[in-house]
Each structure stands twice: as structure tokens, then as C-alpha cells.
Write a structure and sequence with these properties.
- With 512 residues, this protein is mainly α.
- Helix content is 72%, strand content 1%.
- It contains 22 helices and two strands.
- It starts with a helix and ends with a helix.
Length: 512
């Protein structure tokens, strides 16, 4: 399944596409059928902030406080959690400008460690990680939207699934129609998220100015409800890390970023400190109006905060959370579809997923696969059990990617790196990652073991689908027919590659 130019020509195209292709060869380079660079610095920051700020900051404070055991230590965990994400994001900035390809972790690991390791990351992400995360965020969205209509009970099961499905379908349509529309939605809803959190912060600061800060006094803040242990602190970091997840998502769309060598690191350096500051101030605001016991008893911290302080305007909080999750769904769809696109381009997924719309230049087949997988997970119902496995796989992929950076430094020391971080940064991240993952394995061996099993099921799929070159002819005929029909239905073709984006990488391979 490793594609060559001959493989591409093997698939026939509809006549109207052939006519279009002949016209494209006469047109200028700006008219090429390829992913368009429409993500500027503002949209790049919006993608990072919009993917990080989802439902986590409205849910995770309870878990962080529960495992940290005190208000003071929980605030330290939030600050250090942002610091750890900053270390990881700096490593990803180096990888993103050294290997300027969309696909994030998968593309870097495939380039450095080879096809099998990259495929296992791709397999677990496409099969479980992103569809499950999308389903959970969509359900959070529908629950908060429906909450005002069902104040005294939980919203009906069918209603939440139906609204979640409608939301996924609508945003899939938007992403299929235009990259510009998708990024504009991301920009608007990211601003909305920051305004919602800004409201919480301002109300909390007003409370502090009025003298309501008993829980924040050091002598009270460090009163532990339980004896602190390394294992519990590690679990507190794991809860905070869930709220920070998404910091690496801009690397999934590198090829659509305007001047990625400048804007990719700039967006990372702006977004991560901003999110860390907002998260820390939001938690301080929570503790200005709620006792630790009240926060631990709440299943929706922001809603409880609104009910206590906003009175008749308390409805603002569930709507704000709903809007926040809506933007999160859009961001996850946008980036996860590019992962499918990158995997198909490398020959690890069906080639149809590597094609883009002839006019809109959007990866419609990849978007439809992400949409369909998410709806299937929604129908299964037990999404919250799956999210535990997702967290383990997610952090495993982070560690493997940073290890790939260290390996590339050793293997190709002379490779051109527009950004080269201090070696202590990836080493520090790997130490933290190893400790966190080790205590996760010790605390939840069954969950982590099943996460590994899910990932390893990709090994036979890789050898049968990718490595096995001499498949029966009927298999190739079937794939060709499905690809042709998919092209007709979605009106898609292979994108024309821009050699300037990967010329440095190609040159380094030639030197080796």
C-alpha cells in the first residue's frame, strides 16, 4: 500500500476531473489543487486555544483537588501542568518546522521510527482516540444545551444522542465546504470561550476584593484532607493534563499554516502561557466562592459557580460551556481529518482518504470517515469507559514522539533545524512522562493494559494491509472500484504536492 506515482495513475478519474486537470497544468501555481494555506497566526492561536479549552476546565478542577488533597497544591498542579505542556509544545515546535508535514505525532514518528510504529499511533487514534473524544465532547455539548429544558432530571438518552449527531453532521458539512469557514468558526468560538472564562475570573476577583478568600489563605490552602503521596499527585497531574490536552493539534495542519516556520512556534508560545494563566485564575475564582467540599460535591463546577453568584443569570454558565464544547468539536474534526489524510498519503489508509475536493480543496473523504466513526461511538453508548483507555494511548503517543525527537538529534545531528530547543527540555519532559505513565500503570493496570491491547491490534492489520505486497488481484480491483466511486461521489482528486514544503527534508535524506 506504499503509494508511488504509478499507483496514483492506476486509479482512473472521472472525465470532468480529467478536463479540470488538463486546465490546471496550464494555470499558475496558485491554482493548484492542494491544501490551501489559510491559517494565519490568529487562526493558529485559535486552533490551539480552542482545542485545549473544551470541557476540561469546567470538569477537571474536581479531580485535581480530589487527588491533590488541598487547595494550594491543586493550584500548583495547574501551574506546573501548563509548564509541562509548554515543554512538550516547544519540542513539537522543533519537529513541526524540521519535518513540515501535516499529521502531527503520526507524521514525525513515521518519518523517524518507520511505518509500523507510526501506523500503531494512527490505528489507535483513528479507531478509538479521536472518535471517542469527539463523542464525549458532543455529549457534553448536548447535555448542557438541554439542561435548561430538563432542570429537575437528566436529559433523555435519545435527545442527547440526536442533538450530538446533528452537531457532528453540521460541523462536518462546514469543514467539507470551506477551510475558511471552519477557521472562522474556530476563531469566534475561541473568543467566546475566553469571554466565558473571563466572566468567571472577573466575578471571582470581585469576590476576593470583597474579602471572600478564606480558602486561599496559605494557612488554610495547604490544609490537606488526606496524606499527600507521589501516586496521588501523579493522578492530580493526569487530571490537569486532560484539561490541557490539544496543545499539539496545530502540528496536524502544518501544511495549511501560512509561513509555518514562523507562525507555528509563535502560536505555540502565545497560546500555552495564555491558557495556563486563564486556567490558574479560573481555579482561583472557583475557590473564592466555593469551599473545597462544595467543589468536590459538584459534577459541573462552572454551573455551581454560576448558581451561587450569578442569580437569575446563572443560565449563562451552561450556555457558555455548550458554546465552548461546540468550538472544541469543530477543532477536533478539523485536525483529526488531517490525520486520516496524512495516513492515507503515506499508504497506511485507503488512498481515497488522501484526496481533496476539486474546488473547495478540503479532505472530504477523511472528514466523512471521522464523522461516521464518531456517530458509531455515540451509538455504542459507553463512551466514558472508553475515554480512560484514550487517555493512556494519548500520553503514550506524546512520549514516543518526544523520544523520536531525541533519536533524530542523535541520528541526524546536521539536519537543518530552524528551531532547536535545549536538550534539557525534551529530557525533562521524558522524565515527567515516564513518572506519570509509571504511576498510571501502577494505579490502573487493567485500563492501561487494555489501552495497550487496543494499540497492538494494529500489528496484524499493518502486516496484512501495508506490508503484504502480493495480494490477490480481486483485492486491488475492489479497492480501485471503491476509490473510483468515492471520487465520483465526493468529487475529489489527489492533491498536487508542493515540493518547496519538504525540500529541506528531502535534501537531508540525500545527504545521509
Amino acid at each position: 500500500m506504499d503509494r508511488t506515482e504509478a499507483d496514483r495513475r492506476h486509479y482512473s478519474q472521472p472525465e470532468e476531473m480529467k478536463d479540470k486537470d488538463s486546465r490546471d497544468t496550464k494555470s499558475s501555481g496558485s491554482d493548484r489543487v492542494t491544501l490551501k494555506k489559510e491559517i494565519g497566526l490568529l487562526s493558529a492561536c485559535a486552533i490551539i486555544i480552542g482545542n485545549i479549552i473544551g470541557s476540561g476546565i469546567f470538569i477537571s478542577p474536581k479531580g485535581v483537588l480530589e487527588h491533590a488533597g488541598s487547595v494550594g497544591l491543586s493550584l500548583i498542579v495547574w501551574v506546573l501542568g501548563g509548564g509541562i505542556c509548554a515543554l512538550g509544545s516547544m519540542c513539537y515546535a522543533e519537529l513541526g518546522v524540521t519535518i513540515p508535514k501535516s499529521g502531527g505525532d503520526y507524521s514525525y514518528v513515521t518519518e523517524i521510527f518507520g511505518g509500523l510504529v507510526g501506523f500503531l499511533l494512527l490505528w489507535s487514534a483513528v479507531l478509538i482516540m479521536y472518535p471517542t473524544t469527539l463523542a464525549v465532547i458532543a455529549l457534553t455539548f448536548s447535555n448542557y444545551v438541554l439542561q435548561p429544558a430538563f432542570q429537575n432530571c437528566l436529559p433523555p438518552y435519545i435527545a442527547t444522542r440526536l442533538l450530538s449527531t446533528i452537531c457532528i453532521l453540521f460541523l462536518t458539512w462546514v469543514n467539507c465546504s470551506s477551510v475558511r469557514w471552519a477557521t472562522r468558526i474556530q476563531d469566534v468560538f475561541t473568543v467566546g470561550k475566553l469571554l466565558a472564562l473571563g466572566l468567571i475570573i472577573v466575578v471571582g476577583l470581585v469576590q476576593i476584593c470583597r474579602g471572600y478568600y478564606d480558602a486561599l489563605v496559605p494557612s488554610v490552602a495547604f490544609q490537606f484532607s488526606q496524606e499527600p503521596s507521589v501516586g496521588q499527585i501523579a493522578l492530580a497531574f493526569l487530571q490537569a493534563s486532560f484539561a490541557f490536552s490539544g496543545w499539539n493539534f496545530l502540528n496536524y495542519v502544518t501544511e495549511e499554516v501560512v509561513e509555518p516556520r514562523k507562525n507555528l512556534p509563535r502560536a505555540i508560545y502565545i497560546s500555552i502561557p495564555l491558557v495556563t494563566l486563564v486556567y490558574t485564575l479560573t481555579n482561583i475564582a472557583y475557590f473564592s466562592s466555593m469551599t473545597p467540599e462544595e467543589l468536590l460535591a459538584s459534577n459541573a463546577v462552572a454551573v455551581t459557580f454560576g448558581e451561587k453568584l450569578l442569580g437569575m443569570f446563572s443560565w449563562v454558565m451552561p450556555i457558555s460551556v455548550a458554546l465552548s464544547t461546540f468550538g472544541g468539536i469543530n477543532g477536533y474534526l478539523f485536525t483529526s481529518s488531517r490525520l486520516c489524510f496524512s495516513g492515507a498519503r503515506e499508504g497506511h489508509l485507503p488512498y481515497l482518504l488522501a484526496m481533496i475536493h476539486l474546488r473547495n480543496c478540503t479532505p472530504i473523504p477523511a472528514l466523512l470517515v471521522c464523522c461516521f466513526a464518531t456517530i458509531v461511538i455515540l451509538c455504542i453508548g459507553e463512551t466514558h469507559n472508553l475515554i480512560n483507555y484514550v487517555s493512556f494511548i494519548n500520553y503514550l503517543s506524546y512520549g514516543v514522539t518526544i523520544a523520536a525527537l531525541l533519536y533524530l538529534r542523535w541520528k541526524k545531528p546536521n539536519l537543518m533545524r530552524p528551531i532547536k530547543v535545549n536538550l534539557l527540555i525534551p529530557i525533562s519532559y521524558m522524565v515527567f512522562w515516564a513518572v506519570l505513565l509509571g504511576f498510571s500503570l501502577y494505579s490502573e493496570p487493567v485500563v492501561c493494559g487494555l489501552g495497550m491491547v487496543i494499540m497492538l491490534t494494529g500489528v496484524p492489520v499493518y502486516f496484512l494491509g501495508v506490508q503484504w505486497k502480493k495480494k490477490p488481484k480481486w483485492v486491488y480491483r475492489l479497492v480501485e472500484r471503491v476509490t473510483y466511486v468515492g471520487q465520483k461521489v465526493c468529487f475529489v482528486v489527489f492533491p498536487q504536492e508542493d515540493p518547496s514544503e519538504t525540500e529541506c527534508l528531502t535534501a537531508s535524506k540525500a545527504d545521509d
